Every structure is written in structure tokens, then in C-alpha cells.
Amino acid sequence: MTSASVSSRPRPVSRARAFDLSAVEAARRRLAPGIRLTPCHAAPALTARAGRSIWLKREDLQRTGSFKERGARHALLCLEPAERTRGVVAASAGNHALGLAYHGAQLGVSVTVVMPATAPAVKVSRCRTLGAQVILHGATFEAAHRHALALAAATGATFVHPFDDRRVMAGQGTLALEILEQVPELDTLVVAVGGGGLLAGVATVVKALRPDVRVVAAEPAAAAGFAAAWRQGAPVTAPVERTLADGLAVACVGGEAFAAAAARVDAVVTASEAEIGGALAVLARECGAVVEGAAAAALAPVLAGRVEGRALVVVLGGRNIDAAAHAAVLAAHPAADRTTGLAASGATSARSFD
Asked: What SS3 string covers 141-162?
């Protein structure tokens, strides 16, 4: 896929069941001693570029470098004593694995993670350093997921899904409670989406407490699984191409996550690889934020003028990118355009679908 798109709200067939605000509020109480309350910084450089106020929710400043540790720790805290003894197994492109590895060590729970062979080296090495057993299997998240399920069944360990688990969704949603307190004047919240767990938690909180605030889901055009599901009204398998936003490269969104998120999302936007790279470069050069592609994917459609709103909060989900990969993106985007945030070379045009 070579173009970016905007989708308007459909009438989804799926309906959320019992996942609601109370689950996220309970998660916040459990997580309080073990998760950082990350800042939500005003971003003057981005505000000047976009002509509207922009804040950055800095989840890249969590201990393991991403929001994923919220859901990981919460899932571990919800285990029964016998489950803690048997340990947990997970499939992850990296950040969920890091969160489980760090907090598993803190809580005394053994962790085994299955990663695609394509997982960034920095995430693999850090997981091992934190004490997790890491198994590289398959070329895609889906292949790693199947292997992790089989491993959990064979060992009796508890499988902790990286996004399609209400305990995980509730943990991720706690960052939205913080945002609403930190930036009460916001009118739009932009969240990158892969499998949908973060989006589900965030949208549930926002629409319960501030229904006037628009929730915008952003994803790479090369892996637009949520956009495909949103159009169909149910999760479907979408094509996944190579993307800088490797943490969002999920072919099919989670059923639980989609059920919670679909009716609460106001718009879905996608960004091209050039736009994501351009946003990553702008964040590094003008905001001092070294982030991974999945985090830049949330900002990219904002800089491209594809997101409405006058007071926007953009969630920067993580920082775990190989140094060489980050340097290569900066080299490919040497001169960002002040009006769009995109490098002069390689930008693609956008199409809108109303």
C-alpha cells in the first residue's frame, strides 16, 4: 500500500461486553506503586508546525521504554498464586516482552517470550538481560503467537496476550486517566494502533469521562489492520508489509480489543512510511525524543494534516529502536518540511475516504 487514508465512523457489528471504566480505574489502583506517571509535555515546535496546540504523552519514558509495561504488570498482578508458580508465556514483537520480563522479575514470576525472528535486536537483548527466556520463532507476530500458545499448553504456563486480554487492556488504559488530568483542555487524543489493546483501554476511558474528546486511531498504511476491521465491522486479516512501525505490524486486531474500541473511536487514519520516518526525524531533531516507528506513527498523520482538532494529545508509545535503524531514518530525512514534518524526498500523497 502506497497511500495514506482517512476513514469515517462505520456502524460496527461487534459490541463491547463487560469491559468498562471501572476495570481501568481498578487497574490504576493496582499499578500505582510500580508504574511511572509519565509527563504529558507541551510541544512548542510541533505546535508551530501544525498551527494548533500539541502535547506529547511520553510513554517512552517508562522503565522499559514503552506503555506496554502497564498492561504487562497488571496481567501479572491479576494471576492466582498457582499461576504465578507456573510462570507466563507471551508472544511479542518486543515491548510487551520487555514489560513482562522487567515486572516478572520484580514480582517473582518466570517469563518466557516468543518473538518473531525479525524482532529488533535491541528488544531481544534487553529481554534476555532482564531475565526472560527468549525464543525466536517465525517471521511474523502470528507465527510467534501460535508457537507461544503451543508452549503454554505444553508447560501449563499462563499465556498473556499482548493486546487481546482485558487485564492488559485495563492496564494500558490507565495512561488515558493521566492524560485527562494532565491536559484537561484537550479536544483530540491520537493513539497508534496495532492489535488494539491500548486503543481499547484509552477509548473506554475517554468516552466514559470526556465524551466530547475525539479519539483518533493511527496506523501505518503498510499494516492497516484496524482500518480494515473498522470498515468491515469485525476483525479481519489484512495484508502486512514491511514497516518502520514494526510494533504495529499485526495482521488482525484482537476480538476483545475491537469490541471495546470500535464504537468509541471517532476516526481512523493511516500514514505512509515516508510520513512515519519524517515524524520520527522531527521528534528527534525538534523535540529531543528518540522514539521507535510505532510512536512516530501516531504523530505522522497529525503533521500531514490528516487529524482534526485544535488541542491534540499524541501518545508516544515507545523508544525501543535499534540505534542503526534510527540513524538510517535520520539520514533518509535530512531536511524536514516545516509545514508537514516530512522529508523532501519520498513523501506520498494522501487520499481521504469519507
From this structure: HHHHHHHHHHHHHHHCCEECCC
Could you give the number of structural domains in the chain?
2
Q: Indicate the residue among 159, 176, 194 that finishes a domain.
A: 159
The 8-class DSSP code of residue 217 comes to E
Interval 98-138: pLDDT, tens: 999 999 999 999 999 998 898 888 888 889 999 999 999 99
Sheet harboring 6-7: ordered strands across?
6-7, 267-271, 214-220, 188-192, 311-316, 53-58, 40-42
Q: Which domain holds residue 186?
A: 6-66+166-332
End-to-end Cα, the chain, rounded Å: 19
350 lies in some domain: no
Q: pTM score, two decimals?
A: 0.89
| Domain final residue pick, 137, 159, 181 | 159
Residue 76 is assigned to a structural domain of this protein: yes
* Chain segment 256-313, per-residue pLDDT in tens: 999 999 999 999 999 999 999 999 999 999 999 999 999 999 999 999 999 999 999 9
